[in-house]
Amino acid sequence: MKAIVLRKYGSSDVLKLQEVEKPQPNEGEVLVKVEATAINDWDWNLMRGTPFYIRLLCGLFQPNISIPGAEIAGRVETVGDNVTQFKAGDAVYGDISECGFGGFAEYVCVPETVLALKPESITYGEATALPHAAMLAVQGLVDEGQIQPEQKVLINGAGGGVGTLGVQIAKSIGVTDITGVDSSNKFQMMRSLGFGQMIDYTEQDFTQSKEQYDLILDTKTNRSIFNYLRVLKPQGTYVTVGGTTPSLLQALFLGPIIRLLTQKNVRLVNLKPNKDLNYINKLVIAGHIKPVLDGPYTLSEVPEMIQYFGMGKHKGKVVIAIK
Ligand SMILES: NC(=O)c1ccc[n+]([C@@H]2O[C@H](COP(=O)([O-])OP(=O)(O)OC[C@H]3O[C@@H](n4cnc5c(N)ncnc54)[C@H](OP(=O)(O)O)[C@@H]3O)[C@@H](O)[C@H]2O)c1
Question: Which homologous superfamily does the CATH classification assign to the domain defined by 133-268?
Answer without folding.
Answer: NAD(P)-binding Rossmann-like Domain (3.40.50.720)
